[in-house]
Every structure is written in C-alpha cells, then in structure tokens.
Write a structure and sequence with these properties.
mainly alpha; Histone, subunit A; 276 residues; 50% helix; 7% strand; 2 domains; 11 helices
C-alpha cells in the first residue's frame, strides 16, 4: 500500500516499525529487501546496530527532520508501520519533558511484573519493547509514557502538522489470525532460527531482542521450552499483540479504515488512491 501511494504522489517511505531500525533483524520483522522496494526510496531501515536503542523521542526528532528534508525536495513523506506511539509522537504535539509526577512514589510498591502491566495499560507500544525484568527501564518508560500523556491534548487538537491522511488496514479477526499463523510458519521456513541464533551467539541483549519472535527464541536457546512450543508461543503472542495493536489504533488514531481482501488487494489500493 505504501509503495502504491508513493508511486502515485511522488512519495518516499519512512519506516514506522520500531524493530525494522535494526540491522540483522530481517526475517522476524518482515523487513522488505531493497530489491522489493520497486524503486521507491525507504528511510529508517537498518540504521541501528541491534545493541542500540531508539526511544520515541529519538524517533520523533529524526522523522520530523526527515519530513522537513523531503518537503523541501517536493517529496511526499509516507510513514508505514505499526508502532502507533512512534507515529503519533511525530504527527501530534508530543513533548518529552520527562517531568516526575507526584504519584511516582507509588510505583516503588509494585513488583516488576506489575510495573510492566501498568506500562502496557497506558502505552502498549512502549511496553512491547521494554524488558519485563529491567526495573530501571520500566520506571523510566512509565515516566515517559505519563509525561507524554500529560503533554498530549487529544486527537483533533494539537496536531504538529496541519495536513495528513491516516489510513488503517484491517481484516476479519479469523482471517487475520490465519494470516499471522501462516506468516510465522513462513518465517521459520525462511531461517528465523538461524537469524536469531546469530544474535544470541553474539550476546545481543537489548531493546531489539525483546521483539516477538526474538525473545521467545532466546528462551528456546536457553532451553526453557521446545522448538514446537516456541513456535506455538510466537503465534499466540503475535495474535495477542495484533488484538492490542488494533484496539490502540482505533482508540488513539483517527484513521479511515479499509477492510483488506487478500485475494484482491489491488481493489483496496485503488480505493485508497481514489480517496486521497
């Protein structure tokens, strides 16, 4: 969809996927190879080593600068991806003041698992990339999520850019879950185990490797569960994340939604192009 729009409007694509930033995380993030870009330039893919980190504030700064650069060249920026908080922080007037809230002292009473559940309830996109066991990171992430919420004054207000279109793609849940399971199977056929084993052997352990598929295979290499159990868990975790992700987007992003028919995706592309 992003490529089709880019061809129509003289656009270039900016990745809005929090894990496609990382070199070496290819199969598990469903990253397009450059020969699949169909001549459309892509930005913010393979820009970080897997031990590096990218905060929402970092992403906001980098992408806004990239948007300015493209605008000056007469190119339309098209952000593509599913990391909603990252995208929202670019489009709306998110301010990362990091101010400590008066009630942060209450967090000291919570166990790490409870902290993660709290973070997941207010910012699932941040929770997904925050180590469940790293208390310092959990507390920092909650602080950022809360300060973001204070600074952001609702959809329809405080837009950072005056004009943009938000396009959402959805499909019936049963078909979505079938597609997820088929994609996970394909990733394993393509060599996901070898990809993650390379990261594991290199002792990569950071923001990148808490992505779904990577953290479960790390546990497999640690002999926590069998490969069959690991594949089943990855499918389960991906289904759960897809459900949370859709809920978040529909609550937080004022998008126009299109139902995808995988057997005739071009019809959906044509409808989006006609609408914009």
């Amino acid at each position: 969809m992003g490529i089709a729009i880019a061809k129509k409007v003289n656009g270039e694509i900016i990745s809005g996927d929090a894990f496609q930033f990382y070199r070496g995380l290819d199969i598990g993030t469903a990253k397009l190879k450059s020969n699949e870009w169909q001549g459309i330039k892509h930005h913010l893919i393979d820009i970080l080593d897997p031990n590096d980190s990218m905060s929402v504030a970092d992403y906001q700064k980098i992408v806004r600068a990239k948007i300015d650069e493209l605008h000056k060249k007469g190119i339309v920026p098209i952000i593509v991806g599913g990391s909603g908080l990252y995208i929202q922080a670019v489009l709306y007037d998110y301010r990362f003041n990091g101010e400590k809230r008066e009630d942060d002292s209450d967090l000291a009473k919570l166990a790490n698992g409870e902290l993660w559940q709290l973070l997941n309830s207010i910012a699932p996109e941040i929770a997904e990339i925050t180590d469940h066991q790293n208390r310092r990171r959990l507390l920092r992430a909650i602080s950022i999520a809360r300060s973001d919420g204070d600074a952001f004054d609702g959809l329809g207000k405080n837009k950072y850019y005056e004009n943009f279109e938000l396009i959402g793609l959805e499909m019936p849940r049963e078909k979505l879950y079938q597609a997820i399971e088929a994609r996970v199977d394909l990733m394993f056929e393509m060599g996901l185990v070898s990809e993650v084993k390379g990261l594991y052997d290199a002792k990569v352990n950071g923001q990148s490797t808490v992505a779904i598929g990577y953290k479960e295979l790390y546990q497999y290499f640690d002999k926590v569960r069998s490969l069959e159990e690991t594949i089943s868990l990855i499918k389960q975790q991906t289904r759960r994340f897809a459900k949370r992700q859709m809920t978040w987007f529909k609550n937080q992003m004022d998008a126009k939604w299109y139902t995808v028919d995988k057997t005739n995706f071009q019809a959906v592309v044509d409808q989006v192009l006609a609408d914009i």
